[in-house]
């Protein structure tokens, strides 16, 4: 479970570009526990949650109390079921965002805790959480974090323990069950969300994303060499066999020559023979060989017929998505 929780990171650019999602959740007014006018839990009024395509999540909790801030004895806890699996974490929760009030003159403190068999907490960078007044008797406690999950369930508990006592008064939201927030942070539709997708504008999945980071690749490159058997005459070369070797088994090999085009498939030994590139070829004739395989960087060979046989005039690569031959580069292999 901890491996999944690690995909959540404190902080992020709350105004980052991206559509994401935004939902307001409300909690009934006046349902906070109280034992007197000076002994009560802050009343949770509403929770606003927004997200961006890059997985930046902003959780804002509006509270009502006379001080318009968390005071000594106050603690606000946002409990998150990150993987939506009630059998992981602690009591089903994987993350806990905690805001703790202090005496006047000392600002609210904030921590993020990862809950598991071995829990850990961190304070995070400046600006990832706040406690700010928003009106008469109202204030907003907010947290910013980044996530790589399609959705999460969460609930909020505000508790107040009057100094010198051990009894806590609470307000819980929602009053039963949990809320669910969908990040809608998969703009390229490849099934990876938010921070789990390193290339959010390029769809990559399955064999086209072998390391599951949302980026195409990394792809292996097809290596190939052309070989021929033939006999040179004063005006032409008579080919009896043209083949490629060192090819990834199963790759498609397209031979194009003045005698037409034929398609072969590399056998288990990585060899493919042309059926049509046979016979007499005048010097200067061009034969091209195009080798492709899904999720591989393909190879392209341009061979020119000469008195000494076949001479490589061009060696190029073909992107895993297809297209015309291009100069070979590390970029084609993806990441």
> How many domain regions?
2
Oligomer: single chain
CATH architecture of the largest domain: Sandwich
Q: What string gives the helices and strands in order?
A: HEEEEEEEEEEEEEEEEEEEEEEEEE
Q: Report how far apart the termini are.
A: 26 Å
* Helical content (DSSP H or I, runs of 4+): under 10%
The count of helical stretches stands at: 1
Largest sheet: 7 strands, antiparallel
Strand content: over 45%
CATH-defined topology of the largest domain:
Immunoglobulin-like
The whole-number mean of residue pLDDT values reads 92
Low-confidence stretches: 1-6
What does the radius of gyration come to? 32 Å
> How many DSSP-defined strands?
25
CATH domain class of the largest domain: Mainly Beta
Output the structural class.
mainly beta
Quick one: overall form?
rod-shaped
